[in-house]
Structure formats: structure tokens, C-alpha cells
Amino acid sequence: MFNALENVIHVLVVLNYKDLKMVPVLTHLLTYHNKNVLERYAMDYPNNHLSAEEAFQELMKFFWLSLKHKAEKLCAPTNAELDFICGIHNEMEEIDDMWHTFLLFTKEYVAFCKEYLGVFFHHSPTTNEQKIEVTHQDFAIDFSKFLSFVYDHLGEETVQKWFGA
Fold it and tell me: pTM score, two decimals?
């Protein structure tokens, strides 16, 4: 047995499900830019492999994917293929670095969530109370479902960027 959530840095929490009327269009989401966030990321993480622009784009894709996952689960709650944790995994650390950077600009982050996502995304690290024990096999199944969802909706290039596959 091992702790499955040790391999997931953060789990996305979406509030106000009643406001989740539709998933935003990904191309629209990718049009959002914030010069200050990009500059701060470049300053704080000069040794990251992803450039500030790449990390920001991948964060936008993660937000979109998370909303899509939540929406699909609401529409098909018994679909076993959607029964997985849609969160930031250790391999996605540089995307999480960008999320941390974006959160430093609180007013801009709140405005972005409201205007582009329609919901507020909390950045919630996994706590000791939230950790659950699962077998390696169960974690592998969960992770496989997550990877398949990423691949199906964002493609092989995204899987490679996020997981170095």
C-alpha cells in the first residue's frame, strides 16, 4: 500500500457547481495573457524547462481540462472512465509553479476566474487528512484514466509536456 495522493501535489476544487453551465472554449481561454505573471515566473523560476509562456499556456489547458472533467462527471456520474483524480501530479510541477505565480496577483487571478472560467478555482494542497491509502494497482488505474483523458482532449504533445513521456 502507498499513499496515492502523495503523487498528486494539488487537487483542483471548483466551487459553485450551479455556475458550471458550460466549459469555456479552450482557444478563448488560451487568449488570456498577463505580462506581470509571465515576468514574475521567469524571474522566480529561471531554471525551469518550460518558458513562462509555455507554463502559462499549460496552466490554462489544465484549468480547461479540469472544468471539462467536472462537467462530464456531472453529466455522467456513473461513467467509470471519469472516476479519477484530475489534479496536478508531481511531473507537472512547473505548471504548479505557474499557478503559484498567478496566485500572487490575487486581483488578476480572481478577475480571470470570473471572466474566463465562470468559477473560482482554489489552489488546495493535499493535506494529511485527505491522503488515502490505495494499492499500486488502483493508483495505476486512476493515473491511466487521467492520462487517457488528457490525451483524448489535449493530445499527445500535452501528455509529453506534462509528463515527459
Answer: 0.85
CA distance 118 to 98: 20
Share of the chain above pLDDT 90, in %: 68
Q: What is the pLDDT of residues 25-80, one digit of tens each?
A: 899 999 999 999 999 999 999 999 999 999 999 999 999 999 999 999 988 899 99
CA angle 18, 21, 27 (to 5 degrees): 140
93 grid coordinates: 510541477
Q: Each residue of 88-115: b (16+ CB within 10 Å) or e?
A: bbeebebbbbbbebbeeeeeebeebbee
Grid cell at residue 85: 483524480
- Can you tell me the distance from the alpha carbon of 137 to that of 12, in angstroms, rounded to the nearest whole number? 23
- Going by C-alpha positions, the residue among 126, 121, 114 that lies closest to residue 65 is 121
Domain limits, the chain:
2-163
